[in-house]
Amino acid sequence: MEKPAPPPALPLSRAVAPRLEWMSQAGSTNDVLVMAATGPSAADWPDLAVIATDNQVHGRGRLGRVWTAPPGRTLAVSVLLRPRGASGDPVPLERYGMLPLLAGVAMARVVGGLVETARIHSAHRLAKVGVSLKWPNDVLIGERKVCGILGEMLPGGQGLVIGAGVNLTLSAEELPTPTSTSLLVAGVEHPSPDAVLAGYLRDLGTLYERWCAADGDGVASGLLDEVARVTGTLGRAVRVELPGGEFRTGVARGVDETGRLIVDDSDGGAPLVVSAGDVTHLRHDDQGNGETR
Ligand SMILES: Nc1ncnc2c1ncn2[C@@H]1O[C@H](COP(=O)(O)OP(=O)(O)OP(=O)(O)O)[C@@H](O)[C@H]1O
Ligand SMILES: O=C(O)CCCC[C@@H]1SC[C@@H]2NC(=O)N[C@@H]21
What we know:
Layout: H1 11-14, E1 20-23, H2 29-38, E2 50-53, E3 59-60, E4 66-67, E5 74-81, H3 99-121, E6 131-134, E7 138-141, E8 144-153, E9 160-167, H4 193-213, H5 223-230, E10 237-241, E11 247-255, E12 261-265, E13 272-274, E14 278-281
Parallel strand pairs: 1-2
Antiparallel strand pairs: 2-5, 3-4, 5-9, 6-7, 7-8, 8-9, 10-11, 10-14, 11-12, 12-13
Bound molecules: adenosine-5'-triphosphate and biotin.
């Protein structure tokens, strides 16, 4: 029988995280961390504690969707957040809506840095492609999804677990959907799980500390500006599926202080304020059937 691979040492990531557990296999890292952070040893799981694996077998996406990943090709990471403001009081729950966006900004920066470095060093003259955030939870390279983010509240509002799945070394044939991509496919030849994880945790930590110091205020912390800068959804035509199943179209105008998307209704009605809806980008020439997901 083949010997299991030894766990990666992750020196860069361990230097950043207050606690980091690497699992050789996990069902869903979000589930594992929620259990750990609310179980009998909850006190051993500090703010910004991390669980990660490259072999997640029951990954979950938003809205009951699945996150699929062949073993060893993607990074699944969950981070525990127990946000407290400047006075030490918990940040109000209604401000948590910014946290998945905060994670998306951190991931977009890391992915953007790697893709740009690969482009500069490429012998193949790779074209410049933008890395952006698709509200509320995807990081895209060009129009393709390289990372999905899922925030889940701890029971009793004791905090939040924020999970991210990043496609590292999937080949074009292994991609789960026609609209996904991986760092490898985007030209990053040897994406290191440790470098990606450490970069993500570092940026996440910095943005999060600033946000907590401002008591979760998106404007005062500068987070809202940062979100607006990287969110490719803004200014674009989108189709919104409201929780009741109804569809509306319009142009995404902004993100508000609680992380909701503001969409100018193309029918001229009042702006749509979307928190639980599902958003699809429409192509510029879209007539309703050419969406990119
Ligand atoms: N490894 C992966 N890489 C990229 N996409 C994936 C991967 N695994 C699953 N997906 C896609 O992610 C979806 C879950 O994410 P999500 O709920 O964000 O939907 P989406 O298709 O990205 O569309 P949207 O976010 O616009 O609603 C799954 O339905 C699947 O299509
Ligand atoms: O695209 C989405 O809808 C979100 C996908 C989130 C996947 C990550 S992988 C780590 C964490 N554990 C999970 O089960 N899901 C998230």
